[in-house]
From TrEMBL:
Entry-linked CDD domains: cupin_HNL-like (cd02233)
Name of the molecule in the record: Cupin domain-containing protein
Pfam family for this entry, one: Cupin_2
InterPro entries, alphabetized: Cupin_2, HNL-like_cupin, RmlC-like_jellyroll, RmlC_Cupin_sf
Length: 145
């Protein structure tokens, strides 16, 4: 469901926009926001609602792990994109669940004409780390329909 107006989007963004995602801003094109849903001191599974303004997306990245690991995205509001290296982009709508295995180069974010939110869950594993790579080029992004 594409939603361009932020005020309309906030009515559907049930987990809340949160605060500007300043800690990771250098890995995003556009503005993103983060609302932690769990406290890492209380549970080994960290969940955050990540919100992207229209056109915002993160850089290509890889979640590394020697065992387990990866990421799960649960789409909650608006309309976005997910893409693995070498594959076509997947349209994301509320209710979509994306399971991203460890060692998979990928990116995700909002469509150019919609706000977008997903819950991001880092899958527990051994020796986990995140490797941030190059931005998704404007040329690559504008090809998506």
């Amino acid at each position: 469901m594409k939603i361009m107006e932020q005020s309309e989007f906030e009515k559907t963004n049930v987990f809340g926009t949160g605060k500007p995602n300043e800690a990771y801003a250098k890995y995003f094109i556009g503005n993103s926001f983060i609302n932690p849903l769990t406290d890492p001191k209380q549970t080994p599974i960290h969940l955050s609602n990540v919100t992207f303004e229209p056109g915002c997306r993160n850089n290509w990245h890889i979640h590394h792990a020697s065992k387990g690991g990866g990421q799960i995205l649960i789409c909650t509001a608006g309309s976005g994109w997910y893409q693995e290296e070498g594959k076509d982009a997947v349209s994301l709508e509320p209710g979509c669940v994306i399971v991203i295995p460890a060692q998979t180069k990928h990116w995700h974010g909002a469509k150019a004409d919609s706000w977008f939110s997903h819950i991001a869950m880092e899958v527990p594993g051994n020796n986990t780390s995140n490797e941030w790579l190059e931005p998704v080029s404007e040329q690559e992004y504008q090809k998506l329909k």
